[in-house]
Amino acid sequence: MLVLKCLSDETGDDAGDIVTQGFVDVDDREFVNIVNRLEGYFDCTLSLRSEPGRRFVVRDLVARVTAAITRCSPEADHV
Questions:
Q1: Domain range enclosing 60
Q2: The domain spanning residue 34 has which CATH number?
Q3: How many structural domains comprise the chain?
Q4: Do residues 2 and 29 lie in contact, with contact meaning Cβ atoms separated by under 8 Å?
Q5: Would you give per-residue pLDDT tens digits along the chain (79 residues)?
Q6: Residue 39 and residue 17 in contact, taking contact as beta carbons nearer than 8 Å
Q7: What is the pTM of this model?
């Protein structure tokens, strides 16, 4: 939900519309703002700045955030 909120807040698109479409296209400024916001929310690096496209596919973005949280989690160091 936080990923959708971030996408919606930055682009102004309705979160329901983003879910229905499955992706959101953004300009360079929105891209950087979204990445910065998500990395700040989850205190992890998503390594997205070098990605060539400016389209966030919701499913892929959620998977990337989930993987980053797992890598950054202190509990992951003890597994």
A1: 2-78
A2: 1.10.1200
A3: 1
A4: no
A5: 899 999 999 999 999 999 999 999 999 999 999 999 999 999 988 988 887 889 999 999 999 999 988 877 655 443 4
A6: no
A7: 0.83
